């Protein structure tokens, strides 16, 4: 099992994977963001045990948490703890959600694209959610914009995100038809799905997919959920290890293709 802990600082020149990616002895290098806990942690575990030829780069925004996760992997004893958090959607929380789920993913992807282009088997797996399905985007204009795969561009996605945040700021979510309480999470995942399709159309030799891991028992869900973290991680790992002729630009619920 080979795992390195890396602190990723998005929007900064300190992007540590660079020094690890130059390592030549591994057949496959997998960078897992949010790898210190939950599904990301389990993905690191499964990938690392899939073959000796895999270098897993476990990234965490907090270096200490990343090191603790590494320690857990080494001792194979997972500790669990409970956090209780009630989130009310405000403009700030909505912006944070879009920033983390969409722009965070986009910036990490952009930073890694030069390395992926050097790979003989480039794969991108975006962890989405069932809530990001187009049927849950209740603002008709945005839903239409995100549905039209032939016209999808990053500018279109930007327009949807900006329009949504304006509606949050103006307190006009209900009036515009958005599904108010969860709308930021829905939009963030719907645009990740759209971004996945845009990338897949642009990088035809890559295999780029989005996946809903299913309702998974993690700290945040107070360990309630339909699936264990092992079950939630299985699909993303399968997509990360897809053969060259595998699907691209698709959306999966675990290991089954589903509609956007
Ligand atoms: N669990 C489910 O039922 C479920 C269902 C559908 C989709 N998903 C998706 O699966 C993915 C993984 O979630 P999870 O269930 O494994 O949740 P989790 O256990 O809460 O893990 C989330 C990970 O993301 C990191 N993170 C949180 N905010 C961040 C930020 N602003 N910048 C950078 N990293 C940040 C966390 O780091 P810290 O430890 O530092 O906070 C942690 O490593 C998410 O995209 C989630 O939307 C989960």
Question: What does this protein structure show overall?
Answer:
This protein has a domain at 1-79. The chain is 45% helix and 13% strand. It has nine helices and seven strands. Mean pLDDT is 84; it is low at 4-23 and 77-87. The site of NADP nicotinamide-adenine-dinucleotide phosphate has 23 residues, from helix 2 and helix 4.
Summarize this, please?
With 260 residues, this protein is an alpha/beta fold. It is 45% helix and 13% strand. A hairpin with a 2-residue loop joins strand 6 and strand 7 (256-258).
Break the fold down into its secondary structure elements and pairings:
Layout: E1 3-7, H1 17-21, E2 28-32, H2 38-50, E3 54-60, H3 63-75, H4 91-116, E4 123-127, H5 140-147, H6 154-169, H7 173-176, H8 183-202, E5 207-212, H9 229-240, E6 251-253, E7 256-258
Parallel strand pairs: 1-3, 2-3, 4-5, 5-6
Antiparallel strand pairs: 6-7
Bound molecules: NADP nicotinamide-adenine-dinucleotide phosphate.
> Going across the major beta sheet, what is the strand order?
4-5-6-7
Small molecules (ligands, ions, cofactors) in the structure:
NADP nicotinamide-adenine-dinucleotide phosphate
> Helical amount among residues, as a percent range?
40-55%
Q: Main β-sheet: number of strands, strand sense, barrel status?
A: 4 strands, mixed
Structural class by SSE content:
alpha/beta
Q: Termini distance?
A: 35 Å
Mean pLDDT across all residues, rounded?
84
